[in-house]
Amino acid sequence: MKSEKDLLFKKLNERFVKAFTTYKLLADGDHVLIGLSGGKDSLLLTELLAKRARIQHPTFRVEAVHVRMENISYETSADYLQQFCNDLGVQFHTITTKFETSSAEDEEFRNCEPQSSNLKGKQKPACFLCSWHRRKQLFNLAQELGCNKIALGHHRDDIIHTTLMNLVFQGRFGTMPALLKMRKMPLSIIRPLCMMDEADVKRYAELAQYQKLIKLCPYERETHRANVARLFSDIEKISPEARFSIWNALQEEGKMVEQD
User: Fold this and answer.
1) Which of 18, 38, 88, 252 has a CA that sits 20 to 30 A from residue 215's CA?
2) Are 148 and 186 in contact (CB under 8 A)?
3) Taking the domains of the chain in order of start, what are their residue ranges?
4) Can you give the pLDDT at residue 112?
5) Distances (CA, A) of 131 to 46, 124, 143
């Protein structure tokens, strides 16, 4: 009899395969850079992509990068991530960076992704600055390595929460797509965990004994995202089908594959 871990991995892998076939996230010849934060989502993403690459259907290469932020107390063990990647045969990179809030960076922010456009001209919150600079490092390294895709570990709950945030705070219907094709550079962002629910990812991380972060981000419980996550939990108590309704609406409106 298969263990709970084996059965859950099978379920998650099936959703992973369905995601990349439905949204055409992977193709022969791809060179993928994984954003490996060290959280449960990015660890699972790395495991799934590495194991799929061995099958060679499609045939693609995968590498991973961990971006550390000097001025944010958010940390995982670099030794653990290195060993995790070694065990999977994945090349591992680390980058250390930081962000400032000076006006000298204002020009750079004008090239951010669309969902951040309403922050132009306003004071940028720490979460936005941190995320933007991490993303910038991912783009730079991906191009240095010759990667054509960047894989991020956002699951279905993340995508739904982003949809609600955009509706409530920006007055628009949009989200983080499963596939985002960049116009300004030869890169695409893919989210292969997009069809997985956080509860399943969390349980698998426990069964697989993924090492937890040493320090959590000090802002993670004080953000709009954290508040919206609690709101969505209440919504699901009222309507258990809410996640499927929102997901179907996103697909119907073509929000899961976009070009920036």
Assistant:
1) 88
2) yes
3) 4-259
4) 41
5) 20, 11, 19
pLDDT at 132 over 90: no
Distance from the first to the final alpha carbon of the chain: 47
Calculated CA dihedral for residues 254, 255, 259, 260, nearest 10 degrees: 150
Give the mean model confidence (pLDDT) for residues 235-249.
Answer: 96
Nearest CA to 12 out of 38, 60, 45 is that of 45
Q: Are strands 188-190 and 179-181 parallel, antiparallel or unpaired?
A: antiparallel
Tell me if the domain spanning 4-259 has CATH number 3.40.50.620. yes
Closest by alpha carbon to 182, among 114, 247, 100, 89? 114
pLDDT over 90, % of the chain = 72
Q: What is the pLDDT of residue 133?
A: 81
Mark 132-162 as b/e (b = at least 16 C-beta within 10 Å).
bbbbbbbbebbeeeebbbbbbbbbbbbbbbb
Q: How many CB atoms lie within 10 A of CB 105?
A: 14
Task: Give the span between the Cα atoms of 62 and 67, in whole angstroms.
Answer: 17
pLDDT tens-digit map of 154-190: 999 999 999 999 999 999 999 999 999 999 899 999 9
3-state secondary structure of 195: coil
Note if the bond before 58 is cis, omega within 30 degrees. yes
